[in-house]
Design a protein that fits this description.
Layout: H1 2-70, H2 73-78
């Protein structure tokens, strides 16, 4: 009976070890996917910053153009405000 019990416990330990290794492998794969997603997110964040700068520059151009249009022509000729 002791031999059967030891065999049963050994089998349970082997199965537990195999499950542990499988879980460890899955965790590593998920970490790799998370790192790849983080790289993509950082790239997207940088692109958002670049787009924001472009939008700010475009808006500044709109404001400057609006101010130039609202100035009377004779003031432009003489360089007055």
């Amino acid at each position: 009976m002791d031999n059967k019990l030891l065999d049963l416990l050994s089998e349970e330990i082997r199965e537990t070890k195999n499950l542990t290794v499988a879980v460890r492998d899955e965790v590593l794969e998920v970490r790799k996917l998370a790192e790849a997603a983080m790289i993509t997110a950082n790239a997207a964040w940088e692109e958002v910053g670049n787009s924001k700068r472009q939008v700010d520059a475009a808006w500044e151009l709109v404001v400057l153009t609006r101010n130039e249009i609202s100035r009377p022509l004779w003031k432009k000729w003489f360089g007055l405000n």
